[in-house]
Design brief:
9 helices; alpha+beta; 7-stranded antiparallel β-sheet; Phosphatase 2c, domain 1
């Protein structure tokens, strides 16, 4: 069965107007199948005169050596290379040094016999300068979701380095003399995504993969944007999330989870992803087909708990049409009492609620019942499951179709 990992880190910081403090929290969640996903988050971290939060996801392939190495050391290498300078240019330059350093050290493990590789996606939130920098190699993507029903649209901040989707990376590898091909399936026909040979990896940028040689590039793509004027959430997820949910669905759910802390929000996001029907092995129950990880970094500003977010977790009064359910016998019996389903008919009893008594003027918010509410909201937001698009496990099968 899948393992569940849930971590949280939170702090309150004054940013900008002292009368309008913001709150920054970071949390993570994971459903584990192969044990190749790893993640890390730090904060608050003082870099020179700036306060920063860092979060990263490392999706391993061909084993967990590379992803676990990145979990232990990559953020340390990044902070060391920044040298107490958290400017945009410093972070981006430091990332290139840190990624190449980690790549060289992983490829040298045990005399070069370790051939595992890993994606490496890290976000640096500089809350002092209100700047957000994304650094990524591979296909662990980042989504920026401003808070509120009338906020700016969500934005993908990372670059996808899958060979199947990146024309730029395909041209780079072919120009170097590399070989791109699909693996041979059990029926002798092409199967799975486009891969790079030797090595059989499905992405052109990663850390590690010593058997791929010069064709694999650890250099991260970099992107820096200003903070939105509203609060926001940054979601750093492995492909276990992105292959199950469209970015629009992830953004909609993130806004509905605004009133939860970052760790519980990340856990609900992972649960929504692995709840998609195709995400499970048909031979098992609730065993995901891939590791699924989410690191969620959230910055709140005053007024972010909007009316829309409040409605998501309040139990609204149910209005009945005039005369509904009223008979002469009930009128004589006194106040109407809702009927409870009988255990004999197989129906589950309605969930308990602390959201006020019938007829009360105010409805309280029942955060303990959030799982029930989120399940209903997810069903409405997600719609039909997104069909699976690829499988990125590193393989050694013989290639069959050369591009």
């Amino acid at each position: 069965m899948s393992d569940v990992n849930l971590q949280a880190l939170g702090a309150s910081l004054a940013v900008g107007d002292e009368d309008a403090p913001t709150e920054t929290t970071v949390g993570s969640a994971n459903r584990n199948l192969k044990g190749e996903d790893a993640w890390d988050h730090r904060g608050p971290v003082c870099v020179g005169n700036d306060t920063c939060y860092l979060g990263g996801v490392f999706d391993g392939h061909g084993g967990k050596h590379a992803s676990q190495f990145c979990k232990r050391l990559l953020l340390d290498y990044l902070l060391e290379a920044m040298a107490n300078d958290a400017s945009d240019a410093s972070i981006q330059a430091a990332a290139i040094k840190a990624w190449h350093r980690a790549h060289a050290e992983i490829c040298a493990l045990e005399g070069g016999s370790i051939t595992a590789g890993s994606t490496a996606t890290v976000c640096v939130m500089n809350v002092t300068r209100e700047r957000l920098t994304t650094l990524n190699s591979g296909d662990s993507s980042v989504l920026l979701v401003p808070n509120g029903p009338r906020a700016s649209p969500s934005t993908v901040l990372s670059e996808d380095h899958r060979l199947a989707t990146s024309e730029k990376e395909r041209q780079r590898i072919l120009a170097m003399g590399g070989k791109l091909a699909h693996a041979k399936g059990s029926n002798g026909r092409p199967a799975g995504p486009l891969r790079l040979w030797p090595g059989g990896v499905a992405q052109a940028r990663a850390i590690g993969d010593s058997d791929v040689g010069k064709y694999i590039d650890p250099t991260p793509s970099t992107n820096t944007v200003p903070f939105p004027s509203t609060g926001f959430a940054v979601l750093i997820c492995s492909d276990g999330v992105w292959d199950a949910m469209l970015p629009e669905a992830v953004a909609g759910l993130a806004r509905r989870l605004l009133r939860l802390d970052a760790a519980r929000s990340a856990d609900q996001m992972v649960e929504a992803a692995v709840s998609q029907l195709y995400a499970y092995d048909q031979d098992g129950f609730r065993i995901p087909k891939d590791d699924t990880t989410c690191v969620l970094m959230r910055l709140r500003r005053p007024g972010d708990e909007t009316e829309q977010a409040a409605r998501c977790f309040a139990r609204p009064k149910k209005k009945k049409p005039p005369g509904a359910g009223v008979t002469p016998s009930t009128m004589l019996a006194g106040p109407l009492v809702p009927r409870m389903p009988s255990p004999s008919n197989g129906a589950d009893p309605p969930p308990s609620s602390s959201a006020g008594t019938p007829g009360s003027e105010e409805e309280s918010i029942d955060l303990e019942a959030v799982a029930v509410v989120v399940a209903e909201e997810v069903k409405a937001v997600l719609g039909a499951p997104k069909p699976p698009t690829h499988h990125t496990t590193k393989i050694e099968d013989e290639p069959i179709v050369t591009c």
